[in-house]
Write a structure and sequence with these properties.
CATH class of the largest domain: Mainly Beta
Strand content: over 45%
Distance between the termini: 83 Å
Shape: globular
Mean pLDDT: 84
Largest sheet: 9 strands, antiparallel
Number of helices: 4
Number of domains: 2
Structural class: mainly beta
Radius of gyration: 23 Å
Helix content: 10-25%
Order of helices and strands: HEEEEEEEEEEEEEEHHEEEEHEEEEEEEE
Amino acid sequence: MKRSPIAKTISIFSNCIIFFLFTFSFFLSSGKISAQKFNSGAIGIELSSIGRIRVNSPLSQNKRQVYRISLIASTGIGSSFSYIGDQDSLISASNILSPKESDYEIKGAIANYFSKLPPYLTADFSIYGWHNAPYAIVKVKIINRDTLLKDMNIFIGFEFLPQIDSTFGFETIQYDRHQKIITSFRKNSSSTFTALKFLDSDLLSLRMLDWKDYYDRGTGSDSLIFSLMSSKVIDDSITGGADGAACLFSQDALPLKLYDSTFIYLAIAVGNSMSEAISNINESQNRYFRALGIGSYRSKSIPSEYKLMQNFPNPFNPSTSISFSIPQRHFVSLKLYDLLGREVAQIISSEFEAGTHTIKFAPRDIPSGVYLYKLESGSHILSRKMVIIR
C-alpha cells in the first residue's frame, strides 16, 4: 500500500526529530557541551568540559561578556594545541562543594584526544571565585605527555573572544602597557568592561585581529598560532568589524621535560567602567597571593629609600617572608630566578603604596636549590639570594 505525500512528510519529519534528539543526547552524555558555572554575585564564570571559559556580568543583567577564553600552546610550526580541532575532555568540569582556597571553585581537565596531534599535553583547570568579588582567578597546570617530542620548548597562552553585553561586533580590545592589563569594551556609555591579566609572568606576544580574518585560517591554523605566539609583538588596540575582534596572548617559551608540569595564572574581572575593571583586576592580585599561600601587609611609616631585605627564615620550607621598602606609590615586580638566570616564578606584579611591605611567599612545585629574588620598581633594581629546601 502506498503512503500519501502527507504521510511521507510526517514520517521524514519524525525521523529528523528522532535523529536530532539522539544526536543531542549523545553530545550531552559524552560531555562535549557540558559545563559547570558559579555566580559570585558580581561575576559569572562557566567552564566547559573541553576547556572553554565564559564570563557573564551580573552588573549588566547577567549578560555574557566573554564568548570564549581557551588555552593555547605551541612548540613550533605545525605543532599547536588549541580549542578548535585539538582539545577534548579528560575529566568533566565539576563544582567543588567545599573549596579550600576560595568560596567557589570549578575543576576540570582536557587533553588533545580529539586530534591526537603533537604536542600531546594535558591541562588541569581550577577557577576560583569569592562572594561578591567581581573577578576570578584561573589556574592551569600543563603536563608534557608527548613521548615522541619528549623534551620541548613551549609557548603557553590564551585565546580571548569577547562578546560584550551578549552581542558581537565593533568591540575594542586594548592593552595598558604600564599595568599589563588587557581590556575589552564597546565605545558607548552603557558598555560593560572586561579585564584580563597574567598573574605569574609578563606577556611575550599579544596579537589582536578581526574575528573574521582570525578564523578564516584553513589548514594553516597551527602554523599561524605558532607565528603569533612567538612573534614578540604586542599590539595596543583594535576595534573589530561587524563580526567582532579576537586576540591571542602568550608568555615566553619555557623548557618542559617529558612528564614535567608548569602552571599559568590568569585574572579575569568585570566593571562598569575602564577604571573599575582595572581596579578589580588589581584587587585580584591580593586574592592571588592568598590562593597561592602568599600574603602581604604594609607598615605605616614612609621610608626614605628603596630597600629589599633578606627573606626570613632562610633556608626555608614551606614558606618565608620577604620585606621591601618604597618611598612613593609605584609599580613593583618581584621575581624568582635560578642561578642560570631563568625566571622561575613571578611573586608579585602590582602597584603598592609608599611604605615597607612584607610578603609571605610559599612556593609550590619549585625544587630545592639556591635562587635569586629580584625587585624592580621604576629605575630601581635590587636582588638577594634565598634557599629552598624540601
